[in-house]
Write the structure tokens for this entry.
Amino acid sequence: MVFKAIIPAAGYGTRNLPITKAIPKEMFPINSRPVIDYIVQEAIHAGIKEILIILSRNKTAIMDYFDRSIELEWFLNTHQKSNMLKGIVPPKVSFQYVRQPQALGLGQAVQLGQTFAGDDPFVVLLPDQLCLKQPPPLCKMIKLYEQFKHPVIGLQTVERELLQNYGVISGKQIQAGVYRLDSIVEKPQINPPSHLAVMGRYILTSKIFAALNQLKAENGGELQLTDALNVLIQQDEAYGYVFKEKWYDTSIESEYINAQRCAYKMNKQT
Ligand code: G1P
């Protein structure tokens, strides 16, 4: 069973400056709920019971959001607004937090989850990649993990000129939409090995920590999760699952606006 998740949320949000000087991009609203709330709901929907969020110094708003607000609860209760209480109750999942002192890459952020994960498999959800479809494709990834007992990476077919923004895999298709991975490369500037890009959902085992621990930091001291995955793939099995659903990269303004529109429509229909 996969019941733990790590959400790395310690980046500077440079694509969204200047707002991200003060407001974490994970707190950008969609229907009065921050993006990270959708990510947490997705994890819960997929059966996750324990979540570790990797934060940086200026992101305490995320902890506040998932905490109880006793004063607000009191106010709503005493002002005939108790019907609103449902909307502010924290999700029924256990939260833990770790601070990443410096933004030294996704690999280093995940490395900070080693004690949390222990020997259990875990999901990594990148909070700027949002899918509004129910059930979330993460459910299918977990089923595949239960079948293979090896890492499963979420993928999407991406146009060639955009591949340089993603991790890109090479591999063999073993069933519809499922690949056995041969290699993975981070943001290839030339000759991408396929059109299949990593989309911000990973199911990993504790072996990833051994791979991360043996990596040498790149210029600037960053550790890439993709490089550790590539080490793993060379030694062991790993799989990719191609999403068919629409995904939104909420760090890109046009996609954030589209996600808002879609969520607004869905909200009106319910
Ligand atoms: C990260 C990963 C990359 C992945 C992307 C989208 O890059 O390093 O492999 O394809 O997320 O999920 P970032 O967008 O943080 O630079």
